[in-house]
Fold this sequence. Notes:
The structure holds 2 protein chains of 2 kinds.
Chain A: E1 7-13, H1 19-24, H2 32-38, E2 41-45, H3 54-65, E3 73-77, E4 80-81, H4 83-86, H5 97-107, E5 110-114, H6 116-120, E6 133-134, E7 138-139, E8 142-143, E9 160-162, H7 169-180, H8 196-199, H9 210-215, E10 281-282, E11 285-286, H10 295-307, H11 311-317
Parallel strand pairs in A: 1-2, 1-3, 3-5, 5-9
Antiparallel strand pairs in A: 4-6, 7-8, 10-11
Chain B: E1 2-6, E2 17-23, E3 26-33, H1 40-43, H2 52-55, H3 64-79, H4 85-111, H5 126-133, H6 139-151, H7 153-158, E4 168-169, E5 172-173, H8 179-201, H9 205-209, H10 214-221, H11 229-240, E6 252-254, E7 269-272, E8 275-277, E9 284-287, E10 321-324, H12 333-340, H13 343-352, H14 356-380, E11 397-405, E12 408-417, E13 420-427, H15 429-433, H16 445-450, H17 464-472, H18 477-481
Antiparallel strand pairs in B: 1-2, 2-3, 4-5, 6-7, 7-8, 9-10, 11-12, 12-13
Helix pairs in contact in B: 3-4, 4-6, 4-14, 6-8, 8-14, 12-14, 14-17
Amino acid sequence: MSNTAPLNLLWLQSGGCGGCTLSLLNADCRNLFQTLKDAGINLLWHPSLSEQSADEARNIIDACAAGELQLDILCLEGAVLKGNHGAFHRTQNGEAMMNLIERLTKVARHTVAIGSCAAFGGMTAGGCNPTDACGLQYDGDVQGGLLGEDYRATAGLPVINIAGCPTHPNWVIETFAALAAGDIREENLDALRRPRMYADHLVHHGCTRNEFYEFKASAHKPSDLGCLMENMGCKGTQVHADCNIRLWNGEGSCVRGGYACIACTEPGFEEPGHPFGQTPKIAGIPIGLPTDMPKAWFVALASLSKSATPKRVRENAVSDHQVITPASKRTRLK
Amino acid sequence: MSRRIIGPFNRVEGDLAITLDTEDGRVRAAYVNSPMYRGFEQILVGKNPLDALVYVPRICGICSVAQSAAAAQALATGMGLQAPQNGRLAANLTLAAENLADHLSHFYLFFMPDFAREGYRNRPWFTDAEARFKAVCGSASADMLPVRARFMNIMGYLAGKWPHTLAVQPGGSSRPLEMAEKLRLKLLLAEFRSFLENTLFGDKLAAVAALDSEAALMAWMEPRMHRADFPRFLNIARDLELQRVGRATDRFISYGAYTAESTALFAAGLWSECKLHNLDIGAIREDVARSWMAGDSALAPDVGLTLPQPDKQDAYSWCKAPRLAGQVVETGALARQMVAGHPLLRDLVGRHGASVTARVVARMLELALVLPAMESWLHQIQPGAPFCLPVGDIEEMRCVGLIEAARGALGHWLDVRQGKIVNYQIIAPTTWNFSPRDEAGEPGALEQALVGLEVDENENSAPLAVQHVVRSFDPCMVCTVH
């Protein structure tokens, strides 16, 4: 579809940390504001970036809610705080924030959850969930949330969940660009309504620890070079995101930073049922097997590859630098 | 007397509303409302203590590493762990990268755009300020954003990602650096230095760091006020007399910052009655008289309680009111430099008291002071030597982590029993600065700083002077209540 007028975007925050906004500022582009324009977005108001404060900001929000200003994309960053009739987050005039959010979702052409809190409840719903936090259209992995499973924005789509804690700047920018170009239909969202552009990959794809993974040569403590799956709680072989294909802050990712993928794009990641840094096991075998991998084959291959592990890989896995470097050999085609 | 509520107060991190009572064109009383509560201290109860490293950075997307560092320091102290030198240096670098990026974001994105507002159209500097600092479309944010993003690539190497890393561990850093990466980091620091010297200061960092009085600062500003951004601010601030605006209690605390080497880069202490004192952590209490929190008396944070009571009479904020020996104190870059003894800030505050100008100058000065320290810490890192120690199971411990975030003193108090967290109390920098009134009725630091400001009672939008004072503290509301 051809590009038409830019889409009016309003960004609100509720029960979250603001980290998805800060992550967006890490975008690798010449000028984020120009990039948003180029993507077909007209920023109506953003709490951290716009000039308008207080009454001026309120006027923009009210004009959207009243239908006087076309609201093409409503973004919410942070969870919806439902507890105590919304008392845990009120606007300056005493209205529960969850009510304001709901009013705006009724007029929005598209509603977008920025980050796992807005999508599923996320970190804010952890522990005893003191504020009864939930996502816009999910409560953990159960459909419903604030808006209910039947909600559709006026253009016809359910809430688009750009899940992640935080979100990658490109996931956000590309989703906006796709919306502006009319390129997102329901089939472009996965089973949890995440854009398939990033959610059809696993964190495991592109992991630099792949040789250690192949041989199940595993790290035992933070800073070890080995695979983080067997002992350190890494869920990268099961988690949907392209974190090791499109990197973070230049050349980073969680596993490249030396720590486990904790599944932050998945609902319920905040309550894994085990310490985050320890892999839950039964009879020495991790419970969480790689996605699409039959258990018997995994066990058989793991035991075979462990016994086939080269000394170099075995020793480097438990060191914080290469203690044995790869042997040099002639590699010309024969 | 008339009353107005100003909110949503934007270009601060998180949610904020302020109630002002005005009379005869001046603010008579201010009430600061932190309107959003999530309950991290409740969420953390029952968790494995090491899991705090996952939860606490997510208190705040802008002070994320600072929250990690406070938790890691508390856990390390509790376990008696001393991280290897590489790990300590990496922790300094990671925290410094966050703090400097925050100072830069605050200046360009949150604070300066107010000088490009219509209300200043008649000032001689307006045309220049509008072109340079207008929110979203000004040339300065276009210059700064890619530089900031490149600078944050430091986090890609040291921390995996930012915000919300798990690289900051009680045993050190989970991210060992290779020689090639150390060299890349050196080049990234050099790139950032070049932006600061060319665009922000218009001078060498060493020359900025050496400014030692208000007179020296103003003399330095004159030839640069049309070609660099910090001098532009100083020229505007002089015209608006912002050095006379926004004084709170002039009592400052700092927990001390950047401790990898034998002495902290910025020392800990209390500056009060124009003198330096030792900081007595045991004298901290959190009052909840005007907070939507249950409890009768002010408690020490190691036995603190966080129990929401949304319908509490006379309460007006989710924020508690921390007090040091019963007194209201201010924290942040200005406090850090007052305690550390930088002559420029001591002179500015000595002449006028704390102010909008002094708070901004302190943040800019820290960019000039800390980047060279980062270069030195990086130089000392030895690829191949250890970065991290293993951590055993934790059964029982009571411990505290005290660090300096960009916005000031951040403390975590933990009580762990039978391997689980039974109490976790956090006092964040803006909890100090934006606290509500206490049991004695004494207003918090910002509430005091706003009193006496001239405001136009017929003005529709929020008075600009109020906006300058509020943002001069660089508030982080998501940390404030957590």
